Write a sequence for this structure.
């Protein structure tokens, strides 16, 4: 029976420069992910604390996220053109290029949530229940994002699979929140504009969960060399790597 | 005998050759020069009408392996070969197959273009004449071989010119035409683009893709990009041992063996 390389090993290349280039890209993706994590954390705090001052850095941070996306993307293109990477190196570069788009859009969603949260400040004195539900949903999304970035940093397929499974929980909570908001709209039609805003925020958090799932599917591709998108494989597997 | 510091068994991807015919097969093929063992019990299948790349570091035994397949090694002093090279069930090493017959059925193209000091026409006709074909019967196979290597249009009006007048890229195509004229079942190519500039190499690769539907090609190369571009299958050989055989796409994106991974990614093995 064929054995498997089992997991990616990032030992030194004969060309030390090449090892550094790949490591640099990896490090920058994690740094960019860190910025997006921060963006999401701030958005959630504005939502729960109702303090708009927390959001002053959001635009500047978004600029840094966008700049990082362009820089890393360009570095990956250079590596493809100059190094013509193979096997795990090729998968790393391809994974990073795919991850960039999702990470950047998670940043966009976080910014959207922050803007919505600012708009809700002082609007409604009876929004504790949906705000708490949004905060819980947000906390799940944050955990998923952290898990996805950790799974990439450690090339940890167990963690990646775990995060993918957590997406179902986010979807369930999203549907619960949707029911709550719909009920509130029926009960107090005047509050529909606010509830719709909350709905957009909930939708953004649910989308973040989806994108974290994407990130983890790319990590599985990087580690295993198999594309698990649209296969149901990741969700159905009970244990990783078996 | 030196023991390798890696797993020296061969890993062949599951169901790799399920849907293809095998043109040639080695069984436990080992080669020694004097006391030194060069190849260690190689079991390699060469699929018909496909291109199999043999990759590996310099000195890993790629050329030695190819030279075993059409009995070029046996002329080397101190050479000893064990195992079998099977073509249509016959062992080319042992059976009463005459060596010229082996080389007709298993052709070879060398790293440097090696035209004979003859005309373009006579270079291609050379092997056919040895088979006893007369002049009248030569024109058609010579033209066919020159067309197969996309050289006909370039030389049709000067077939009597010396082969040395051709460019290196054309000379290499002529060498391939010379082998093809004998309608081999297997064509061995040892670094066929080694002496060519990048553009001529690409033309040659294009040609290989087409020829790969005509006979089995075994392409030994240390140019990994070339192997990735042209081969259907790839075999990784290291220290005279066959490590992994896989389809080219998988071998270059997700190899089964760590030794292969180290080699194709340029890591210290």
């Amino acid at each position: 029976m064929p054995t498997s390389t089992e997991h990616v090993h990032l030992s030194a290349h004969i060309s030390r420069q090449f090892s550094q280039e790949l490591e640099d890209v990896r490090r920058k993706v994690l740094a960019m992910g860190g910025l997006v994590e921060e963006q999401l954390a701030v958005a959630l705090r504005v939502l729960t604390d109702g303090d708009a001052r927390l959001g002053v850095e959001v635009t500047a941070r978004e600029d840094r996220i966008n700049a990082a996306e362009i820089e890393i993307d360009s570095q990956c293109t250079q590596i493809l053109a100059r190094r013509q990477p193979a096997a795990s190196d090729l998968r790393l570069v391809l994974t990073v290029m795919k991850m960039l788009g999702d990470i950047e859009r998670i940043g966009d969603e976080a910014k959207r949530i922050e803007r919505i949260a600012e708009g809700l400040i002082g609007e409604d004195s009876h929004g504790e229940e949906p705000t708490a539900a949004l905060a819980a949903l947000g906390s799940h999304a944050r955990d998923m994002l952290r898990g996805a970035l950790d799974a990439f940093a450690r090339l940890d397929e167990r963690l990646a699979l775990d995060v993918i499974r957590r997406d179902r929980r986010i979807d369930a909570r999203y549907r619960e929140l949707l029911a709550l908001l719909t009920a509130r709209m029926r009960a107090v039609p005047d509050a529909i504009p606010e509830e719709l805003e909350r709905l957009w925020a909930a939708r953004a958090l649910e989308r973040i969960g989806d994108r974290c799932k994407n990130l983890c599917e790319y990590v599985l591709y990087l580690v295993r060399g198999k594309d698990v998108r649209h296969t149901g494989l990741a969700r159905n597997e009970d244990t990783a790597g078996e | 005998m030196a023991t390798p510091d890696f797993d020296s068994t061969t890993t062949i991807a599951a169901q790799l050759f399920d849907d293809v015919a095998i043109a040639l097969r080695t069984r436990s093929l080992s080669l020694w020069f004097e006391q030194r063992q060069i190849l260690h019990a190689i079991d390699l299948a060469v699929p018909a009408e496909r291109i199999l790349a043999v990759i590996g570091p310099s000195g890993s035994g790629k050329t030695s392996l190819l030279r075993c397949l059409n009995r070029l090694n046996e002329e080397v002093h101190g050479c000893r070969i064990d195992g079998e090279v099977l073509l249509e069930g016959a062992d080319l090493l042992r059976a009463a197959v005459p060596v010229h017959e082996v080389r007709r059925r298993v052709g070879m193209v060398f790293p440097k273009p090696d035209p004979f000091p003859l005309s373009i026409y006579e270079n291609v006709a050379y092997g056919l004449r040895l088979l006893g074909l007369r002049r009248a019967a030569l024109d058609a196979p010579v033209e066919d071989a020159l067309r197969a290597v996309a050289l006909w249009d370039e030389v049709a009006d000067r077939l009597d010119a010396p082969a040395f007048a051709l460019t290196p890229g054309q000379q290499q195509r002529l060498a391939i035409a010379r082998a093809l004229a004998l309608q081999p079942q297997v064509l061995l190519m040892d670094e066929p683009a080694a002496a060519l500039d990048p553009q001529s190499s690409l033309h040659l690769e294009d040609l290989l893709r087409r020829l790969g539907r005509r006979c089995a090609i075994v392409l030994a190369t240390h140019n990994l990009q070339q192997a990735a571009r042209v081969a259907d299958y790839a075999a990784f050989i290291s220290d005279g041992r066959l490590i992994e055989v896989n389809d080219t796409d998988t071998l270059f994106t997700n190899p089964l063996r760590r030794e292969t991974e180290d080699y194709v990614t340029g890591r210290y093995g």
About this structure: Residues 229 and 263 of chain B are 17 Å apart (CA to CA). Chain B touches chain A through 24 residues (CB under 8 Å). The first helix of chain B runs from residue 62 to 69. Chain B is about 35% helix and 25% strand.
